[in-house]
Amino acid sequence: MGKLIETKIDRFDGGIVNDPRDPREATARIMSNFNTISSPHKMTPYRSSESGDASGSTQTIRNFVIARFDSTPTFALYGLGVVSGTGRAQVFRKALTTGSANDLDDGDWTTTANNQSSTGATAFSLFVFYPRTGLIYGSRAGTQIWAYDPTGVAVFADSHQALTTTDIGQGIVHSKDDILYIPYFNAAGPTAAIAKNNNGSWTNAALTLPTHYMPVTICEYGNFLAIGCAHRDGLSNSRVFLWNRDSSLATIHESIDWGTGSLVILEEIDGELIGISQKGGTAAAGWFTGIPNGTAPHNDRVFFRKLIGNKAFKFLELSANHASTRNTTQIPSYRQKVDNRLYFQMMIELNGSVRDGVWSIGRSSPDAPLALIHERTSNNNTALVTSDSMRGFFMVGDYLFQSYVAGGTHATTKTDDSTTAFSHNSVYETKTFNGEKHGFDATFYKDLHEVSVMTEYMPTAGQITLAYQINQNIGTSTWTTIFTNSTDNSISHTANNVESGGTALPKDYKEIAFRILATGGAEVTGLRFVEEVKEKRYVAD
Q: Of 216, 239, 254, 282, whose CB has the highest number of CB atoms within 10 Å?
């Protein structure tokens, strides 16, 4: 008999890694629809999704904001869509309550008076509430900033402020000066600039930038406004500018090389400036449409960088493993910071399947590394295909709204708050194991002697399905089921030979990976497996 080695996984907050043999603890190839950050030693399933807009195909709501509804003040959730059959802006509203009509737990939206644009197509990338003026702002037809009164009292202002743009990004209100800033680009100038609104007084070019860059994304960074720019040629490095918001000066405080890839998202997390860049992928990935796509010779890549001193350092890279066509990765420019985590949408082919929905970057504790998690899929177990697209999201408490196009039809889903809302799969796919942790490697043959999945007490509808991949099947969509456990109140299940409804444990393999599917609210607390490493290394296969 060979040597028995045991591997146990009982921490899950390390996030997703690109390298299937990454030695870091608590990491995995895929974590989807699990909350792995709140309790690092347990994976808790998120609730399933249901329709978040009963008229989603016609209203096409795809950007969201919280704004003041009346003078009480009462706040509400607003969604930017269109007048049915047109490109004209129409703003919809939901109450921040449950149990009544048109609120968070149903798929209906209502409207106020004066909620429609009368002319021109709206841009969905700008939808921001400015409390000092009490207005929500958007962009129309590349020539005007429109303004909407969320109380419905004032007339919808189609031509609130003249501003000629080819592309425009999401604005932010900086907490240091309470001024609204908006990034935009005008190819006719060309002009790359930051517009500002100071309590109703507009300055179209409060800051001008080099015109070979497009200002794509902005965020607060201490006293500064951090401005993320992609190079217009789509090939040169991106750049981040730090501006102290002093319009009287033509200079900026710092100019930082942000490395290869087109920068799409910039945000501050735990005092660190985090940027997400994309190389390859589709032109629909964000509001910036100047990136030439379809020319990348390799698989799409996504780069995650953080600012250290005055340099951007890469802490994670994802490489899409396309089954057929390349340039299908999507990263829309929508983002949200909640509980000091950066949430964003992404579609990418990883570990043999298309992964779509809302992802996050953040830490489980101050001393933990930054971790990438695939938080939730767009539409439960119905994965999008690479010809589909994602169109915005928003988190309101425990409710997540996600908009996307599937098969040419726009839809919006939201979190289902029913007590049985755990019908979708929560997925955990491990890294590749070859015995290296125990002093062996992929030149040794192995037999799987036993494997266990530990859980919290299994709920009535709970179910755990464990599967494996070996050798050449690792990283594909081919999985072999070992067991399915749905025993009420059980806290573990072990396979050590042949399971009813399953299969014999694999023998004579060199590398192995596991997948856990949880449904019905089953919470995973650990995975343990024992392998026998053969007494001698096989010289020839």
A: 216
pLDDT digits (tens, 9 = 90+) for 420-460: 789 999 999 999 999 999 999 999 999 999 999 999 999 99
CB of 277 within 8 A of CB of 238? yes
The closest of 9, 42, 41 to 28, measured between CA atoms, is 9
Q: Which of 114, 125, 128 is nearest to 196 (CA)?
A: 128
CA distance 380 to 33: 9
Whether the ω angle into residue 73 lies within 30 degrees of 0, i.e. cis, is: yes
Using left for φ > 0, alpha for ψ between -120 and 50, and beta otherwise, residue 331 falls in beta
Instruction: Answer for the pair 172, 220: CB distance below 8 angstroms, yes or no.
Output: yes
Structural contact between residues 392 and 62, judged by C-beta atoms closer than 8 angstroms: yes
Q: Are strands 27-28 and 15-16 parallel, antiparallel or unpaired?
A: parallel
pTM > 0.85: yes or no: yes
Contacts of 298 (CB under 8 A, 6+ apart): 280, 319, 326
Amino acid at 57: S
Q: What would the mean pLDDT of 479-485 be, rounded to a whole number?
A: 96
Query: Dihedral (C-alpha) 230, 357, 348, 391: value to the nearest 10 degrees?
Result: -50
Is the distance from CB of 61 to CB of 45 less than 8 angstroms?
no
The secondary structure element, H or E, covering residue 58 is helix 56-59
To which residue do tokens 């806290």 refer?
491
Number of H helices, E strands in the chain: 1, 41
Rounded Cα distance, 351 and 476, in Å? 6
Burial class (CB in 10 A: 0-12, 13-18, 19+), 449: middle
Residue 42 tokens, joined: 């347990």
How many other C-beta atoms can be found within 10 angstroms of the C-beta atom of residue 101? 10
Provide CB contacts within 8 A for 248, sequence distance 6+: none
Assign 71 a pLDDT band (cuts: 50, 70, 90): confident
Q: Are 266 and 228 in contact (CB under 8 A)?
A: yes
Query: What DSSP string runs through 70-87?
Result: SSS--EEEEEEEE-TTSS
Q: Which amino acid is at 493?
A: H
Torsion angles phi and psi, residue 199, rounded to 5 = 55, 40
532 close to 476: Cβ distance less than 8 angstroms:
no
